[in-house]
Amino acid sequence: MTNLSNLPNEILIAILEILAAEDLQSLIASQRASRLFHALIEDILYDIQNKSATRHEDDDSEEMRIHPLWKIKFGGLFNTADSFTAAEKKRLAYLTLNGDYTLPFRRLPWAKSLHRRCAHTRPEASWRDISLTFGQAPITHLDVVKSYSAPEGDSVDYYQVDLDSSGLTMGLFFDILLSDKATYGFETGSWELILGRRLRSYDILSEYECFIADDRDLVDFGKEAWQAAVLYVRGGPASCGYAPESHDGWVVSSLVKRQRFLPWQGPIQNFIFTGYYD
Fold first, then answer.
1. Count of structural domains within the chain
2. 239 lies in the same domain as 122
3. Are 23 and 110 part of one and the same domain?
4. Is 249 contained in some domain?
C-alpha cells in the first residue's frame, strides 16, 4: 500500500510547501510523522523564511502582520488587552494587569492543561524557531520602550534587542516577555507589540516620558520602519498584591541573555537650555 513517504522527495516537498502556506499548524504537527518528514519540514521552514526575507527586501507595499497561527496560539502576548474576557472588558475601566503580569500567559489556549503546556514550552518545540511574521519579511529591529507612571513622577526606559540575522522568532519574543529587562515584574500594567514602528529620537522620548505611536517626531513608520517593531510596556505601582506561587510557575527571569538588550544605538542630541520661555 502506497503512502506519502513512498513519494519522491521532490513531490513530497511540493506538497508540504503548499501545506506551509495553507495550514502552518498542520505542517508543524507533521514533523512528528517520521524522521524524513521532520528533516524535510525543517528545510522547508528554513527556505521559506529565507525567501521571504529576500523577496520583501525592497518592498514596503504590504503591511507587516503577525502570522495568524501565532494570533490563535499566543494572542494575548501581542496585546495584553486581548487576554481579558468579554465580561472583564465591560466591567473594567482600564484593562490593566495591575501587577498580575502572568495573566496573559496563564490564559493562553494551551496553558490550562499541564500536559499541553509542557509540550508547548519544551526548549526544542518547533514553534520557537519560526518567524513571528512567517511568510513575510522578518522583523529585524525591535525597540523595547518602557513607561512607568507613579505619584512621584513618570519615567521611561529603552532597550534595543540585538536580533540575529533571522530576525524575531516566536520563541525569542516569548522569552523576551518573560525576561526581567522587558517588563516591570509585578508592577507591569500592560504591553503591546506595535509592528511597523521604530523609535526615531531617544531625546524626545526622554522629554515626553511616554510613548506615542503616531508621533512623527518620536517614531518612524512607513518605509523607514519596514521590518521594525516596538514592544511598548507600561507599569506602575500595583494596588493588589500577588504572591509568586500564585502564578503557577510563570515567573520573570533572565531567560534572554543580557547582551541581547542594548542601549540606544542612534544619535544623541544634546540640548543646552539658555533662557526661559515667555
1. 2
2. yes
3. no
4. yes
Boundaries of domain holding 171: 68-262
Answer whether residue 153 is part of any domain: yes
Q: What is the sign of the dihedral through the CA atoms of 138, 13, 41 and 78?
A: positive
Average pLDDT, the chain: 82
Provide CB contacts within 8 A for 217, sequence distance 6+.
Answer: 200, 201, 204
Distance of alpha carbon 273 from its chain centroid, rounded? 39
Residue 125 CA to residue 163 CA, distance in Å, equals 20
**Which residues are within 8 A (CB) of 210 and not within 5 positions of it... i.e. 6 or more apart?**
147, 154, 156
167 shares its domain with 231 = yes
DSSP state, residue 183: S
Which pLDDT score, from 0 to 100, does residue 204 have? 94
In a domain, 24, yes or no: yes
HEC sequence for 93-137? CCCCCCCCCCHHHHCCCCCCCHHHHHHHCCCCCHHHHCECCCCCC
Residue among 78, 74, 86, 146 at smallest CA distance from 111: 74
Looking at the predicted structure, is the pLDDT value of residue 45 above 80? no
Shared domain for 30 and 91, answered yes or no, is no
Q: What is the largest CA-CA distance in the chain?
A: 89
User: What pTM was estimated for this model as a whole?
Assistant: 0.83
The reply to whether 163 and 139 lie within a common domain is yes
Average pLDDT over residues 92-119: 88
